[in-house]
Amino acid sequence: MIPFDGLFAQNYVYPFALGAYDATQPPPGYSSGTNAFGILVDTTRQGYVSQLAQSSAAHKRMMQSMLDQPRQLQLASLASANNTQLLAARRSTQPNQHFGWVCVDASKSRLIVAFRGTEFFHDWLDDFDFIPAPYAPIPGRGTVHQGFQLVYYSIRDNVRQLVQTHGANCKEILITGHSLGGALVGVATPDLLNDVAANLSPIVYTWAEPRVGHDDFVSFFDTHVNVCYRIVNVWDVVPHLPPVLALYEHEGSDATIDSGFSLDIVKNHVLVSGYAPGLAEWNRSHVPQATRHFGTTTIAALVGRTA
Predict the structure, then answer these.
(1) Cα dihedral 219→66→234→5 (10° resolution)
(2) CA distance 185 to 20
(3) Domain 6-302 carries which CATH code?
(4) Where are the chain's structural domains?
């Protein structure tokens, strides 16, 4: 088991997870069309059309919530990250077809895939259902949440093409995402590693990820991804959905952080107020130490739970 690296998560992964929400410019240090390429929706693809036909009204609202996300993050500061501000926020007047970025870090021979979520997570949180469906990208590999799979199929062809095109000279693939974007990570990762990223060593760090699949899918995922950490704010409700009573499980291991108690579900959930300060505090509390087998790392990072 490769240890959780809190500083890597804070200094390297977090800017991609946050930057995925911004359709107007790539994450810091990257240039659109040069080493950063937008992940775009294509609802005309047959795979998406087939998934849409099978989807419930709740799943269609989940998809609409993604399309309603403005092209720039609205809750971009601690002061604005609360439930009142979110409910008053404006939705996009046109469907936001940008779902994140594929970036190339040539200095590290690393491809980064970063999926955005939606600030309007109330839309699917209030009437969240637990309907499963067979994992469509690779038949016979278990069942996943039908709504998450629907959203993934809206971008599947585009993200696969970007990974295949720009990963040729890379050795690693880092896949990250926040909230519903974290669920996209869960569904996308085995699909990408099955062929277009088969030669890339995977690193998965998600933020506020809900449970994606049943035990058959999770077992398949875990046998193919050695480094998978879900960063979870202890006060955030989203990682507890769908519930274990519906037989959904988490893949990988969790890395629990604490942003401080709040009854405001938005403050606990969004990156800027729930995850950035919580991870920064985690790193302050876990000073790296020399270990015999893992080099310099934080001792607590060797502990992970999979439930």
Answers:
(1) 60
(2) 13
(3) 3.40.50
(4) 6-302
